[in-house]
Amino acid sequence: MKKLLSIIIILLICSCASPKYKVIDFGQFKITVPENWNKYERKGIDSYVGGIITDKNDSLNFDFGRYSADLSKSDYPMVYDSIGLAELTKKERELLPKTKHLIVDDLFKTDVDFREYLQYQTELDSIDCFKAKIITPKNKGYGGTGIYIDSLTGSKEKYNKIGIGFYGWYLNDKTQAEFIKALKTLRFEKYCGQQRI
Predict the structure, then answer these.
(1) Residue 148: which H helix or E strand, with range?
(2) Among the residues of the chain, which ranges form H helices?
(3) How far does the chain reach from its first CA to its final CA, in angstroms?
(4) CA distance 98 to 189
(5) Which of 4, 23, 124, 129 is deepest in the core (most CB within 10 A)?
(6) What is the DSSP letter of 39?
(7) Interval 158-196: pLDDT, tens
(8) Whole-structure pTM value
(9) For the chain, which domains are there?
(10) Helix, strand or coil, per DSSP, at residue 102
(11) d(C-alpha 77, C-alpha 2), whole Å
């Protein structure tokens, strides 16, 4: 009887501890996220925009359309002069001491390998049936984390290309890991028949 009771208690503990997930359907795509994350939508001007609010109240935003941004193309080195420091947001100034950065007197008169101070790392992967860039900050919690898919349908030549950028900013380690895990579950059922990797 003690063995049976012990097994039941262990099973109850394990079932309570395992995270629960749900699928959010944004119409153009679906994503599997932790159960306590919630969908939101906004009115976009030239694209479909919206996102998810996490349990930590972080906003994970997407831009689905012709002008979706590729965060990796904004990978500026974290080398600052007095002007660059002044342009940082309050949050960036608070987080800066925990990052690999460099402060110089003059950006143009310094002998620095700027590549050593780039903000992001990019990993190429496939999500559903598309090539994707997974972008994470080199300095944990400083900058954006997310995904960019250049072309779900259409082409640049015909000016009808549709892509997606989906990013969160200044995420803690746990939220970043959950977000990347969720991004890898993205499903583009309307578009996968049109294009294959």
Answers:
(1) strand 144-153
(2) 2-17, 82-87, 90-95, 173-183
(3) 56
(4) 41
(5) 129
(6) E
(7) 767 889 999 999 999 999 999 999 999 999 998 887 654
(8) 0.83
(9) 18-74+119-187 (3.40.1000.10), 79-114 (no CATH)
(10) strand
(11) 62
